[in-house]
User: Fold Outer membrane efflux protein from Marivirga tractuosa.
Amino acid sequence: MYKIIVFILWCCTLSGLAYAQTPTIESVLTQVEQNNKSLKAFADYLNSQKLALRSSNNLEDPQFGAFYLPIADHTDANYTEFQLSQTIEFPTVYGARGNLIDEKVAKLELVYKSKRQEVLAQAKEFCQHLIYLQKQIAIEETRLEQAEKVFEQVKELFAKEQVGIMEMNKAKVAWLQDQFKIQELENELNAVALQLKSLNGDEPIAFTADTYENSLKVSERDSIWQEKLLLDPALLKLEQEQLIAQQTLKLAKNKALPNITAGFNSQGIPGERFSGLYAGISIPLWSNRNKVKAAASEIQYQERFKNAETFQRYTDFEKQYNQYQLMQEKYEAYESTLNSLNSNELLYKAYQSGELSFLDYFAELQFYRKAYDEMLRMQYELHISQTQLLKHQL
Assistant:
């Protein structure tokens, strides 16, 4: 009894390990996000851009200058002077520029998020394509077994001179076509698997699922749109551009304040020197001219552009959502009709009982097979369309 229990537990453990080793779409996306070379390169690029932005708010370098004046008509020692000074912009300028940099960094992060979503959506579509091909292969393998049985039966009938050579040749061709169809699907599956591997930084992924994980049902249109407003980086970027324009205006106003210079100065001859503090201001009478007006105009432009672009994106989203709903209704009607017919089994029984000749059976079978393949294609295209519709959730 003890050995039996141990054996059962061991089998359960192996089963659990096997299941754990079968990646889900979610786990594939996690791997792709970690391994994708484009995302890694883009992350490095964004990091360099962030550092460049941060460096634009550094203080100016200190200045050191010296005079040595030996050429003169005098009997005293030569005159020398040196000065050490530091120029800074008005303190509030650094705060305003720092806030502007923060907004630009946030925009860069949205750019990365958009790129990430594109890569993950592509990876998800590859997974869905693999599922579609696995389903097709499974169906074709069943069809191949059936075609082989029919061919053997027709050969026997031909040997008994109950059917002609045309029917036997057609049965053989049908059998061969099913073999070739499986080979084509397997080649296509391998090609898609290579594309997924490339997206995963050339690291292989053994994705062998043959069923879609998610339902084809989606939330109401308004609910999805509100989600997109909160999560879609393309829409968030419009808002971010507006914030950048507002902060640019604040910076322009602060740059109208004077720059400040402070330092130490020493001059004179040996034995007689004068030393003390140095201070000065630089009044930006001309350098900031029209910059405030330009920044204010940019705010107005960004606001109008955001409204126009958001409206256009909502129009595109509404069209996409409506098309998805129509496709889904068509698919559900198609699926319900085909599943209720049980055509393949009925046709095969009719052929075996002699109600249909092979030629009639073959013609009818092709019609229903084509319809079933079309249903699978519609199912696959629906999942692809859903991925694009809900890409903001990735």
